[in-house]
Specification:
The protein is an alpha/beta fold. The chain has helices spanning 11-24, 37-44, 63-68, 72-77, 88-97, 108-121, 125-144, 193-199, 242-255, and strands spanning 2-7, 28-34, 51-54, 79-84, 101-103, 150-155, 158-163, 167-173, 176-181, 186-189, 205-209, 212-215, 219-223, 229-232, 237-239. Strand 6 (150-155) and strand 7 (158-163) form a beta hairpin.
């Protein structure tokens, strides 16, 4: 019986995958459902699994980050299956590395095939070593290839897809959000700023005020005057609240080369 660890930031996705594994796949026992890389990493310090069903794009740390920080000896033992809705560029990298992956929404036959491949791999030491080497190459490929992430913005009668790198900042307007883009255009979206904060990459975007979230890559200048003020590439200036200042400065240091004093 394979002990399975499921990792996905969406509880519904975890529940759906658990249901499919229990009802449509034989020889699999769910031992843990984790909603973040950090939760999975902590669990793995005192527990063990045979197979990891891993989402790639998660807030904070991605699935690649989790694998990159895992002990190589553990990667020799555990089998990894990516369960992802990631963009085409990452999928190309996965295909090139021949690592198992399943696209969302999950197809039952693809899930069964992935489980069967893992079951056949056990008892074959060379397969474990090969997977570790493939994952290492995959992580290197992804780290060295800048991937543009796109966000689907709801509009009347449909959606518009925008590269997140093109978002300079987001401004709260009651139950709406004004998106400021690099081309100086604005978009008004019927989602709250909190909705965007939960969706966007927290390593790239930071909430600096109850009314503003900014893209760290589009900061032009920062001033400590008046408690904190940030000027963006598009000319907009936003104030930083006291509550968010420490978080902003911490992420600023991680994003830019800065002198110690």
């Amino acid at each position: 019986m394979l002990k399975a660890l499921l990792i996905d930031d969406e509880p519904n996705n975890l529940d759906n995958l658990e249901f499919m594994l229990k009802h449509d796949c034989t020889g699999v026992a769910i031992v843990k459902k984790a909603q973040s890389a950090a939760e999975a990493r902590e669990w793995l310090t005192t527990n063990d699994a045979d197979i990891m069903f891993l989402d790639i794009q998660m807030p904070g740390e991605t699935g690649f980050d989790l694998l990159n920080n895992m002990d190589s000896s553990y990667l020799e033992r555990i089998k990894v299956v990516f369960v992802t809705a990631y963009n085409e560029y990452a999928l190309q990298a996965i295909k090139a590395s021949a690592v198992d992956y399943i696209l969302k929404p999950i197809n039952i036959e693809e899930l069964r095939n992935a489980v069967q491949k893992v079951q056949q791999a056990f008892g074959n030491p060379s397969v474990a070593i090969q997977q570790r080497q493939l994952i290492a190459r995959l992580i290197e490929s992804v780290n060295n290839t800048p991937l543009q992430q796109r966000i689907a913005l709801p509009q009347l009668g449909g959606v518009i897809f925008v590269n997140t790198d093109d978002i300079v900042s987001l401004q709260a307007d009651s139950n709406y959000t004004i998106i400021h883009l690099t081309n100086m255009q604005k978009m008004v979206i019927s989602k709250t700023l909190k909705d965007f904060d939960e969706l966007l990459d927290q390593q790239q975007f930071v909430r600096i005020h109850k009314s503003y979230t900014i893209n760290l890559r589009h900061i032009k200048a920062y001033s400590a005057a008046g408690g904190g003020l940030v000027k963006m590439d598009d000319g907009n200036q936003w104030s930083i609240s006291r509550r968010q200042l420490d978080l902003f400065l911490e992420k600023l240091k991680k994003t830019y080369l800065m002198f110690s004093k």
